Amino acid sequence: MIKENNKSCAVIGAGISGIGAAIRMRNKGYKVTVYEANAFPGGKLSSETNKGYRFDMGPSVFTMPEYVDELFILSGKNPRDHFNYEQLNPVYRYFFEDGSMLDAYHSNEEFAEKIAQHTTDSKEAILKYLEKAGVVYHLTEEVFLKNSLHKLKSYLTWPTLRGILNFGKIGAFDTMNQANEKAFKDPRLVQVFNRYATYNGSSPYLSPATLNVIAHVEIQKGAYYPVGGMYSITKSLVQLAKDIDVAFRFSTPAEEIVVENKQVKGVRTAQDFTQYDVVISNMDIYNSYKKLMPGVKKPQKTLDQPKSSSGIIFYWGIKKSFPELGLHNILFSSNYEQEFDTIFSKKAIYNDPTIYINITSKHSPDDAPEGCENWFTFINVPNNSGQDWDAYIQQAKAAIIQKVNRLLKTDIEPLIESEMVFDPRVIEKRTSSAFGAIYGNSSNNKYAAFQRHPNFSKEIKGLYFCGGSVHPGPSIPLCLLSAKITTDLVKE
Ligand SMILES: Cc1cc2nc3c(=O)[nH]c(=O)nc-3n(C[C@H](O)[C@H](O)[C@H](O)COP(=O)(O)OP(=O)(O)OC[C@H]3O[C@@H](n4cnc5c(N)ncnc54)[C@H](O)[C@@H]3O)c2cc1C
């Protein structure tokens, strides 16, 4: 039972973090209204159907489902009555140019056992690496994931202090690639673990080895598939929010966060102005300042931090089934270092890109016609600084087709019976993400975690921020933690 407090809160953006924040604020007793520019919820976590093929448009790897469950429990409901998921095992299938293939299994033990059978590294070496990633995860989660980095009280708890006292052990001084090259002899394993840098749009040749904790999250804590696909996360949480009386205003972009005397006053749209006690912006932080608060002093250094990579995605309806592929498939580039250098230094696309193919019809057969598959085909590309994206799309499509044909020994082009394409311009337009960067700031330096914008405004009372472009960062679980950290900062 929610105890009303007669206060009101606006959430700008129905991204996963905005929805999470709305549910949490409602549970604190606020009357909550969510403004969403699109006609649909979810932002990056949305869904489209094209010629009988359904696609999750953005995220496809689901980890830490407990943060979705937590929102149902907080609202007095049993999550299993509303949202379900299955554990994946194996999680990934990796393909290499030499014709070899590796399957990544769940749990340190099974992963190490099976991978050691096909590589030159021993089970013991792999286990040692994974166990270390687990230790670093536990040392860092309180400091970097679960609390505001910008409030003194966050530093006065034992788990946080322990993390800080062990700073030397968390791998902040090596890059991911340096740590992975020290750990493994087999270059394929180095590549497998380097890939986790792309989970927040960064380069393993620049990001701190601390990010190797992502391997622990995916391999040991586990990866899951939501029943009905990724979009069921958005759908079930929006339904939960509606059930507890959160109001949604779709197709209603906020045009201004109105501020007077350093106090938030409310939200202006093209139609009206409404007063609120609290405003939480889930819009990308760069555009929150630029577009919604042009008159407010900007934290320029924070906003100018280098942004993450973006993606070109082909959503292909494939009129054939490929038993050699699983839900998550990676076709690795033969020169990873050059690929990242091309993306981050040259701001161009690489001619032999690493390709990610996600096929949800493997688990949700209704996502494609019988005997067919829905291919979400993704390559990492730079964010938008005015490149010729139409030319890049043609170049990317040709490179992907060639590589798929080579590695899967097929002729894929005649099998593509439907196509939608996203590039950084589309991502920018659809979600207001600055420069179409998928993950906010990149993590391409060891201080990146400290350079994200805090979850509150230091200048304006009543103004807060949540989502992938602010602390603690991108991905579904971190965005849900961002909603929690943000709403915990709002006084009852
Ligand atoms: C291709 C791709 C693959 C990804 N893969 C994964 C993955 O496998 N696993 C994973 O965990 N994460 C993944 N991510 C990252 C993850 O999707 C994001 O970190 C997360 O969804 C971001 O959520 P958010 O709440 O920050 O907001 P967003 O999803 O960015 O949504 C922001 C919302 O705010 C709305 N909005 C913006 N401005 C206004 C305004 N002025 N008024 C009203 N509404 C406004 C937008 O329309 C949008 O709906 C992926 C992302 C993409 C794009």
Automatic annotation (TrEMBL):
Any Pfam family: Amino_oxidase
Entry EC no(s): 1.3.99.27
UniProt xrefs under InterPro entries: Amino_oxidase, Carotenoid/retinoid_OxRdtase, FAD/NAD-bd_sf, hydcarot_desat_CrtD
Positions of the Amine oxidase domain: 16-486
TM ranges: none
Family membership: Belongs to the carotenoid/retinoid oxidoreductase family.
The protein's name in its UniProt record: 1-hydroxycarotenoid 3,4-desaturase CrtD
Species this chain originates from: Terrimonas rubra
